[in-house]
Amino acid sequence: MRNSEAEKGAGPVQSVDRAISVLELLAREGEAGITEIATELGVHKSTASRLVGALEARNLVEQLGPRGKYAIGFGIVRLAGSAMGRLDLARLGHDACSALADTLGETVNIAVSDDGVAINVSQAFGAASVTARNWTGRRTPLHATSSGKVLLAYLPESVRESLLGRPLERYTAHTTVEAGSLRAELDRIRRDGYAASFEELEVGMHAIAVPVFGADGRAIAAMSASGPAYRFPRERVPRLVTQLTDAAAELSSQLGHFPR
């Protein structure tokens, strides 16, 4: 489409499609100028310039010198690193879960946040948990699980508040369903670095979780250990937190996280 009327009518979806085409062109050719980009897209140079300007503002493309051509920017590397981090988490997380499960003799899980719930992406059973349920792939509530509370605590505030504004389902008599009480607990989790769930999702089940950090310093997952209440008394929490924190720190370092 080369006529200005067609370009004026370009909606958000078409703009996104064109922006992606710019990135694909630069990935394929290495670099390109505005004229080349406009020709590739079949748009006026002014339209190509606006698209490139928007991408440049997000560091997705960069100009190679004054009035030079454009190339893929480091923002793409950041996005790619995030995607690779998820892939590495599934691969490396399995080994981390297995090692800690062997040490603790209990079930160890790694969960990530997805659309307001926690999804367990890796699990290993310890010798004492041979009859434990397989949680891999299950979606569990953020507010009623130790992993979920860790993930909730480290979400951006605006996202966290949006989730806390929804009704919180009660699963047992111990489930926290009052937003103010949950906020106070999330503050404590960020301060102390771990979350606990004592029969909040299932009667007779206790769990402890800590955050796993990615290369950009964000908490991208939670590592938890769980077991029946009689094997997970509250007195065991400090030792479990230490063991979980050490294992999560090792996994975080493998994912490229280096504490400052």
TrEMBL record:
PROSITE patterns noted in UniProt: HTH_ICLR, ICLR_ED
Keyword vocabulary terms for this entry: DNA-binding, Transcription, Transcription regulation
Molecular function per GO: DNA binding; DNA-binding transcription factor activity
Domain spans labelled IclR-ED: 75-257
GO process annotations (BP): negative regulation of DNA-templated transcription
Domain HTH iclR-type residue range list: 13-74
Keyword Transcription on entry: yes
Keyword Transcription regulation assigned: yes
Domain of life, source organism: Bacteria
Pfam families: HTH_IclR, IclR_C
PANTHER family: HELIX-TURN-HELIX TRANSCRIPTIONAL REGULATOR, ICLR FAMILY, HTH-TYPE TRANSCRIPTIONAL REPRESSOR ALLR
Protein name listed in UniProt: Transcriptional regulator
